[in-house]
Amino acid sequence: VTHSIPACIGSMTINGKQLDNESPVSIFAVNKCYETVQDGTFFDGSGFAALVREGYKVRSDVNITLEFRTTAAHGVLLGVSSAKVDAIGLEIVHGKVLFHVNNGAGRVTATYEPRGTNSLCDGKWHKLQANKSKHRISLIIDGNLVHTDNPYSQSTSADTNNPIYVGGYPADVKQNCLTSKSSFRGCLRNLVLTKGQHTELFDFSRAFDLRGVFPHSCPGAEH
């Protein structure tokens, strides 16, 4: 077994002596336990999760679905880039959700802006679907569809080769389709990427790099 247990552990004694877990000598990727907990992964606003070390190839088509819950108006949701300009990115900026795609010819953005006082940053779960089909891109938030025109219809493939960064990205990593550097604070769950017939559900506990991210437990309410 090479990964940690997703659980809460308390009242541990060794040889009759209770361990003091309030002031450990060292600590890594250990969060507090919550009285009320939901399925999901908690992002504390300081880091990111890195998936697919060998690099994810978006190319012509990809469909991304996830659910998010946050009270912050800004935060990176997901980015996949390349060393060149090809990339895709999902982010929350000023309470709007932006889906950016660059197939090499220029960045195109689909923007979802909640109507009226309806907020996506209300601490409740919201469902997101972002679809890239060649040069066409669309965004669906809670069943509401946004299309955008793409002036670069001849360019159809995002030739990415970098990992998938979720909730943020390292300072030394370039992201060509993200405008925000703010790490996401809140909870994510059910991240699925589909290409053709291949569907992959990503388990954050299997990420090759996790910073400020706590898989499998999401506080029932923001603390």
From TrEMBL:
InterPro entries: ConA-like_dom_sf, Laminin_G, Neurexin-related_CASP
Residue intervals of the Laminin G domain: 38-218
Annotated Gene3D superfamilies: 2.60.120.200
Coiled coil regions, renumbered to chain: none
One Pfam family per UniProt: Laminin_G_2
Protein name: LAMA1 protein
Organism name: Bombycilla garrulus
Gene: Lama1
